[in-house]
Specification:
The chain has about 325 residues and is of the alpha+beta class. The protein has a domain at about 5-175: NADH Oxidase (3-Layer(aba) Sandwich), CATH 3.40.109. It contains eleven helices and ten strands. It has helices spanning about 5-20, 40-45, 60-65, 110-125, 145-150, 195-200, 220-225, 245-250, 275-280, 285-290, 300-310; strands spanning about 25-30, 75-85, 100, 130-135, 155, 160, 170-175, 205-210, 210, 240. The strands form four sheets. Strands 1-2-7-4 form a four-stranded antiparallel β-sheet, sandwiched between helices. The chain has a two-stranded parallel ribbon with strand order 3-10. It is globular, with a radius of gyration of 21 Å. The N and C termini lie far apart (about 70 Å).
Length: about 325
């Protein structure tokens, strides 16, 4: 083995060890290069309008496919997973209006960014001069593609990354850096003949295995769509008022999910006590208390109350009521 290979292996081992110490459940590394396989898929997905009103996904097409356009001299993409699966006692009961599990606790952007900054600083202290940037779902990075290339899992039929023995209830983040490291490789797809996610999606957003029409997803309707929700999906959102976990909840691989050890992802104590009547009476003050540090802030108080009314079968404000209020 060449001396340079030994150095890269040592640096890689340090990064993975430090990532684990910071609470990441997994770390994989791949060479920073053009995502040749993903390019036509992304182009076709956008051409079919599956991004809906998420127009930002149409921007920076080249940067989404080549990390070297995001970080000068980029040589490695370090992909990291952080578990957010809540303990059983922290989960909302089935008989209430529901928020996606990822938004129970503190906004993941802040939690993960702090960890990534620490990891990058530790790399600089241990390795020497390292240039790079941290990414947490806030820049044109195809995080699932990089995590797959790094061997952290395969992209399932519901388009989520799935990890053997862990499932899919985790966040994905990246450090793109200008140092060469030892690289991991992808693993095989273990979805097999299973179609539970396709069968369970109420809005048929999974149009075919491995293809999700974002403009039909419950998460899109309850988070991304800023106008009134379309009448043709009335009754299809179940009791989801922010996001949706259905395609993950039914995935057999998520029987391996274990409760996160990240205390910042613990929910506000009042969240699991909320019943439909409480949601209908929610005030701006209660919203702020529950979600001051949560990703639910993204939809805002007006957006959340819009979703609550819609799930209850009520019309938009100002229109005559056609169904009684859920209690």
């Amino acid at each position: 083995m060449l001396a340079s290979d030994i150095i890269r292996a040592e640096h890689t081992a340090f990064i993975k060890r430090r990532a684990a110490e910071l609470g990441f459940m997994a770390c994989g590394i791949s060479r920073a290069e053009f995502l040749e396989e993903e390019a036509p898929r992304l182009e076709q997905w956008l051409a079919k309008g599956m991004q809906g009103q998420m127009r930002w996904m149409e921007n920076h097409f080249d940067k989404r496919l080549d990390p070297r356009l995001l970080v000068d001299g980029a040589k490695s993409v370090i992909s990291l997973l952080l578990n957010y699966y809540p303990a059983e006692e922290d989960q909302q009961p089935d008989d209430t209006l529901k928020v996606s599990k990822y938004a129970y606790g503190r906004d993941y952007h802040h939690v993960i960014k702090d960890k990534l900054k620490t990891l990058l600083q530790d790399m600089q202290a241990h390795i020497g001069e390292v240039g790079g940037r941290a990414f947490v779902d806030s820049a044109p990075v195809l995080d699932k593609a990089w995590a797959r290339k790094s061997g952290l899992g395969w992209v399932g039929k519901n388009s989520n990354l799935i990890t053997p023995g862990a499932g899919s209830f985790y966040f994905i983040a990246e450090l793109i850096v200008d140092v060469e490291l030892s690289y991991d490789g992808p693993i095989r797809d273990y979805c097999g003949s299973c179609t539970r996610c396709l069968d369970a999606c109420p809005t048929q957003a999974i149009t075919e295995p491995y293809v999700v029409d974002g403009s039909k997803c419950i998460s899109y309707f309850t988070i991304e769509l800023k106008e009134q929700l379309p009448a043709d999906v009335q009754g299809q959102l179940g009791n989801w008022i922010f996001g949706c976990d259905i395609c993950q909840d039914v995935c057999p691989w998520n029987r391996f999910s274990r409760a996160t050890q990240e205390e910042q992802f613990r929910p506000h104590p009042q969240l699991k006590e909320m019943r439909p009547s409480h949601w209908h009476e929610i005030t701006q003050e209660v919203f702020q208390a529950l979600f001051r540090h949560s990703a639910v802030k993204r939809t805002g108080y007006q957006g959340l109350t819009r979703n609550i009314r819609f799930v209850a079968g009520e019309p938009a404000l100002g229109a005559p009521a056609t169904k009684p209020e859920l209690s």
